[in-house]
Amino acid sequence: MKVVIASLNPAIERLLVVDENRPGTVHRLMRSETLAGGKGVNVARVLAQLHSPAFAPLDDGGHVEVSSVLVGPLGGPTGDLQATLLAAEGLVSETTSVDGWTRVNEILVDESRPDGATVYNAQGPTISPHESAELNDLAVSSLDGAAMLVCTGSLPPGIPDDFYATWIGAARERGIRTLLDAHGAALRLGAAAAPDIIKVNRDEIADLAADEGVDQAELIRGWRVRGTEAVIVTDGSEPLRAEIASTAWDIDAPTVATRSAVGSGDAFTAGLVWSILARPAASWPTHLALAVACGASNAASTLARLSDAVPPRSLVDQVRLRAVDPSRPRNGSAR
Question: Is the pTM of this model over 0.85?
Answer without folding.
Answer: yes
